[in-house]
Amino acid sequence: MTNLEVSPQQEICPPAPAEGRSGPCLQLWPEREVPLGGVRAMNVKRTLPQRGLPTIGAWCFLDSFGPDRTAMSVLPHPHIGLQTVTWPLAGHIRHRDSVGSDVVVRPGELNIMTAGHGVSHSEFAVLPADGGGLPLQRGLQLWVALPDAHRHRAPAFEQHRELPVADGRGFSATVMVGEFGGVVSSATMYSPIVGADVACEGDAVLPLNPDFEHGVLVLDGGLAVDGQDLPAGPLGYLGAGRSELEVQARPGTRFLLIGGEPFGEELLMWWNFVGRTHEEVEQARGDWEAQATLPDAMAAGARYGLVHGHGPDAGAEAGRIPAPPLPGVRLTPRKRTVD
Ligand code: MN
Questions:
Q1: What's the DSSP call for residue 267?
Q2: CA of 24 to the centre of ligand 1 (A)
Q3: How do the pLDDT tens digits run along the chain, 339 residues long?
Q4: In this structure, is the dihedral angle defined by the CA atoms of residues 186, 189, 193 and 197, taken in order, positive or negative?
Q5: What is the CA(244)–ligand 1 centre distance, in A?
Q6: In the sheet where 267-270 sits, what is the strand order?
Q7: Measured in angstroms, how far is the CA atom of residue 330 from the centroid of ligand 1?
Q8: Ligand 1 centre distance from Cα of residue 155 (Å)
Q9: DSSP assigned state of 330
Q10: Measured in angstroms, how far is the CA atom of residue 112 from the centroid of ligand 1?
């Protein structure tokens, strides 16, 4: 998945203080509908980044799409400086990328793409073989910011078809990335982090890492946290310093739990790029546009490589997503107040 906004703005994400932006709390951060380009684009609700809550741990982007009967078709586009975490809830998605991957991801399976210095990929809904109707699509797309020591690394892709499960008082959690309840995912991550899909009913007590800040996105049902309602829709920010979380869950409740060590680096996010400076983002954009005119053989060796299957003979799948224009307003990261 990708940021398909036609006129994306640059977003500066200030570094989080080491102790997190808050101690234990429950703040509700509303989702916002994001206008996307293309008639086949999906209905997307974004809850990260937000002004005032740019990151939770290294998580810097959270989009929820569907449920919609629509044929997702996202042509090749680039990324830098991040990992994409794709978690389908309904429907199958075919992922192709410039490191040679061509895989289908289904509910219960996880795609992790590490962009590093530069990668490109496409994502298409898998249509029913019988040709009948559009598939129901629902899912989550998250980005994890790569820390400075890893953000220039070579691109990579991994798919996890079996994920470990942590069971506890009133809950059962599929551990997508990082560690939760003593259970560790084998997904490759570059900062202390957690991402889990939690099924929960009645009174539950979730073990948390008190060094992490956490957030919860209710997918189905609803929760009460600290005596306050947390319905489906907004992102609930839980702050840092919690070693456990007591919740009361309605029947059939399912939620995404994300968290991590407060991310101490300032980010500059624009379109599908996570960088540090305007110049870097401008260069990343220019490199993608420059590849458009290269023959395939040269594009394969260029910064973002080549996604096979989208050449001139690919019919409806031919082409690429051009980079939008950079906004006229130039943002420069704030000076660090803490080293
Ligand atoms: Mn993408």
A1: E
A2: 33
A3: 566 666 677 778 888 888 888 899 999 999 999 866 554 556 789 999 998 999 999 999 999 998 988 888 899 999 999 999 999 999 999 999 999 999 999 999 999 999 999 999 999 999 877 777 888 999 999 999 999 999 999 999 999 999 999 999 999 999 999 999 999 999 999 999 999 999 999 999 999 999 999 999 999 999 999 999 999 999 999 999 999 999 999 999 999 999 999 999 999 999 999 999 999 999 999 999 999 999 988 999 999 999 999 988 899 899 999 999 998 777 665 444 433
A4: negative
A5: 34
A6: 11-13, 267-270, 273-275
A7: 24
A8: 13
A9: P
A10: 11
Find out whether 221 and 250 touch, Cβ atoms under 8 Å: yes
Closest CA to 281 of 335, 320, 331: 331
Distance CA 118, CA 156 (A): 10
> Could you read off the pLDDT of 185-200 as tens digits, one per residue?
999 999 999 999 999 9
* Chain centroid, CA 154 distance in Å: 19
Q: Which amino acid type is present at position 94?
A: R
* Helix%, strand%, coil% for the chain, nearest 5: 5, 45, 45
Q: Residues 11-260: name the CATH superfamily.
A: Jelly Rolls (2.60.120.10)
Do strands 73-79 and 165-168 pair parallel, antiparallel, or not at all (unpaired)? unpaired
User: Model pTM?
Assistant: 0.94
Domain locations in the chain? 11-260
Cα 65 to middle of ligand 1, angstroms:
14
Distance 77 CA to ligand 1 centre (A): 6
Cα–Cα dist 25/225, whole Å = 9
For the four alpha carbons of 189, 124, 102 and 99, in that order, the dihedral sign comes to negative
Instruction: Note the Cα 191 to chain centre separation in Å.
Output: 15
Q: What is the pLDDT of residue 332?
A: 62
